[in-house]
Fold:
Amino acid sequence: MIKPISLVSIAALLIGSSAASAVTSVIVRHKTSDDLLKGTTDAVVVDSEGEIRLAPKTETLNFAGLLDDIWSVNTVLSDKAGTLYFGTSPAGKIIRLRDGKADLLYPKPQPAAQSETADSAAVQQSPQPNEHVYALALDVAGRVLAGISGEKGKLIRIASEIETVFDNEKVQYIFAIVLDKDNNIYLATGPNGQIWQLDAFAQNPRLVCELKDKNVLSMALGADGALYAGSDTRGIVYRIQPATGQYTVLFDSDQEEITAMRVAADGFIYAAATSANVANQQLQAGASLKKAPGKPETPASGGPAPTDGGLNLKTPASDEQKNQPAQPQQQAPKAPAPKSAGFVYKISPEGFVTAIFTEPAVFYTLLDKNDKLLLGVGPKARLFSIDPVSEQRLVVYENKTSSQVTAAVVDGKDVIVALANPASVVRLKEALNRKGTYISDLIDAGQPARWGKIQLDADIPEGCKVLLSVRSGNVKDPNDSTFSAWSQETAVTAPVDAACPIGRLNRW
Structure:
């Protein structure tokens, strides 16, 4: 176990404006997470104790273009063979990644109709569907179950063919799927706050209960057979008896949404609570696709309409249509911003509640690995590790391109991290990077200073080393060309000199 750098001290000798001015010594310490998180990181992470650690190695997974029109990867599923499945928005794609190769499971690709008179500039008559896949699971036979959300919600089963096994006029959205020890299937749905049960063969649907909230966003199963469900609008955690449909309020949070839940082996419930109207924002953005320009909803005047049961995929483009400029691709919605700080709550089976984590962020996903909780957030795409006992926190991964960590799943010793805006998927490996870099925030002495010694509090194991470099300047823009060059890297085995010119500002 490598104990990381936990304290950096730098001494500055402030120089007066005249020979008569006093000379003052100042020591600056970077020892808390707030101090260190102001800096920039590359292949290192900063924990809640103010320690800098090497970060896990990462690998961006290759989807061969299947994510090009995707805004968000909403959910991830891993089977025993290591095959990964991904549910997405806004086109409702379900993508399988097996042996390094990605393929589209849903919707099934439809071959384009070809004819001798087909026009290469033909207009696509079938609009892109407004569908979202928020929930995936495996049934008793290892087949993929997927909740399709949109104008009409449905549960599909994917094997050699795609089969719709459940739909209901009061269900538009399926946000979570869980299976009990008998492989009965439970669906958390919206917008009528319903929880449905199907048997192990996805038959005999039964309405378990209808809550007062519009959407049931999250759900988990306790060892005692009770269901725990999290709602939107009021941010309530419910305990539900599946056999009778009776439910009680276990916890009423101050946040609007319970976006993710876990039940630990000891019976404690962990709930991620946030206030950002997450689901509705994404659904509304997806609905705007139906009104996107350049996608006619009715046949052109004078053209034949498709007969009942028919499919009119393409029509020859008129000269007027050919001359129209290409329409811009529909833009992804802006990542939701938190209305207030989010919380992770630890709830005892009796209903006693402790807040073990808080952050001004939007919370999306919660899972457990090696007795730690992993929490995915936005609009800065970060994955936190939380110790539920000590409440120590650590940013184990941050993506500086995407806006949100929307889903994650444990895959062997690794963690698969799904991202949104833009959509991407990263494998977070158990092995650590061999090298990482941390650059501090600017240290402002207030006036020109001669920078003295730098001292680190670190445990450096055999075969490892810490190299230190510094620079100085007099402009608050660290990228300004007048800043000095970085000093030669020096191995730190004791306090070292800050080998940089006199200057008001310093970085290490």
About this structure: The longest helix spans residues 278-287. The longest strand covers residues 443-457. Residues 115-127, 291-328 have pLDDT under 50 and may be disordered.
